Amino acid sequence: MSASSSSTNCSNAPGSPVLSAKQREIRARGGRILDAAYPLVREKGLAAVSMEAIAREMQCTRGTIYNHYVNKEDILSALATRSVRRRMEMFRYAVTLSDQPRERCAAIGIAAEVYVDCLPDDFAIEQTTRHDPVWQKASPTRRELLAECEQQCINCLSGVIGAAIESGDLTLANGISRQRLTEQLVFGLWSLVYGGLVLEATSPSLGNAGISHPRIAIRRNCNALLDDLGWRPLYDAGAYQSFVVAITPKLRRHAKRLLEQPAEDSPA
Amino acid sequence: MSASSSSTNCSNAPGSPVLSAKQREIRARGGRILDAAYPLVREKGLAAVSMEAIAREMQCTRGTIYNHYVNKEDILSALATRSVRRRMEMFRYAVTLSDQPRERCAAIGIAAEVYVDCLPDDFAIEQTTRHDPVWQKASPTRRELLAECEQQCINCLSGVIGAAIESGDLTLANGISRQRLTEQLVFGLWSLVYGGLVLEATSPSLGNAGISHPRIAIRRNCNALLDDLGWRPLYDAGAYQSFVVAITPKLRRHAKRLLEQPAEDSPA
DNA sequence: TGTCAAAATTGGCGCGTTGTCATTTTTGAC
DNA sequence: GTCAAAAATGACAACGCGCCAATTTTGACA
């Protein structure tokens, strides 16, 4: 009925139009362009990717691409949004791996590590997009979309902290407000993990400075932060270690799954 | 012979040649190019700076610039080296502001904040240079130079930690090795401060997430890390605050001084 | 199935930027 | 004043982006 009525072709359901095959193809092209650009970025590095190359991969011409994205930076931002969305999915999955707030918190940290390891190109894309030349030329709509995705990543962490306060695992010492404590913790853990991973990826001098196990340092420091605020149960090396060992393969599998997911085209 | 022989003009001391006026000007031009590029970067943003614009500022043609730098990225790297050197000077000055290791450590953190506030363009340049498109095209020599400068910044912090261990303010608990403890602390503080400042500068979603005082969070978290490791004297809000208030204006003055310093030309 | 307007695609154009190089100019020793 | 070495110049080719008029494709209607 809503489907093939006459012998000719398609028709419209009132609210949501059933699109003809070609029309759907066009709609999906936005996503296909990203699929084409993604491996090019992986191979050649981000600056070296030309519109020409993307078009070649797509088997169309540059002009067509401009029907979907206003410029190269716009494509980059769209890629970044897809990446942040994957990160968010990692985090959301991570918090399902335990009922205990402190373990959930740890799981998010490990999820970030796995994200960097299993989806390194996504991580690199996020980095690049952050910087002004790209950020400024991207369309405002896409900027907002990206910011909102990041927001949700942060919310995931705040949620766990909120749950810890509710449950009493984390208490408000020294008359600090709940708001303030959350702020401090979110920002602290975020800086520690994000900053640490960025440094690991981009600072060649770290090795010379005798920093040979950045991941261990990150983990230990996060726990130090949590301990200092009295988040119960306090750090226990054995328990922590076995939790990490237990969830890491699950997180890796989830990352792989995300990579293979069909390209949901982003609302352009 | 090697000295001033004839009446005409210049001559060479054996090891270090005494250069004629024009020769010295050429030698200094490398630095002058950086001076020309720096404000352009400040105004127009980094990607928008063209060789043409730099040449105009220098009152010469593009060709001449290529006598000193192999490409634009090379100029950027040179600028970054100058920036990192300024940061290093900030750190070196910071550690002179107290005799107590823990205060010295705090001083380095505040120095980083002041660096970002008073030399924002330097901070931005550092960020940009870190990213692959630039990093890969810069000449290897300059890359090494930059890495070495960063190294010295890190050494400054390791030194303070070393002194704290020597003096007994910081003790090796749980049989952790000195090497390992230093590694963990350097990396942790670095991530926390660097990561925090980068996030503050580039993450628009932070405000929405209720993070309104990132600086306070950074400081408090650093102290949490130090406390957790038992670095004496433990955090005391009053003492810390008054130390910060005492050194901040000094650090700001030092930053201003660095800005006005004549351009020592980097070895190209 | 043929017609035709709307929509999408094409590919060539103008512009700006980069890096090179043969030519011209400047420098400074004699 | 002469001349070789060094440096500056500016024109040139290549490239990539973004635009747009011309062309092709699509799909509704008869």
Can you offer a commentary on this structure?
The structure is a homodimer of 268-residue chains. The first copy, chain A, has helices spanning 21-44, 51-58, 62-65, 72-94, 101-118, 120-130, 132-137, 140-167, 178-202, 205-208, 214-228, 237-260. Chain A is mostly helical. The longest helix of chain A is centred in the middle third of the chain and has 28 residues, at 140-167. The model of chain A is unreliable at 1-17 (pLDDT under 50). Chain B binds a DNA duplex (30 and 30 nucleotides) through helix 1 and helix 3.
Total strands of chain A = 0
Largest interface here, residues on each chain?
A-B, 57 and 57 residues
Label the structural class of chain A.
Answer: mainly alpha
State the shape of chain A.
Answer: elongated
Span of the ends, CA to CA of chain A: 30 Å
Output mean pLDDT of chain A: 88
Helix segment tally of chain A: 12
Share of helix of chain A, binned: over 70%
How would you concisely characterize the structure shown here?
The first copy, chain A, is mostly helical and 268 residues long. Helices cover 71% and strands 0% of the residues of chain A.
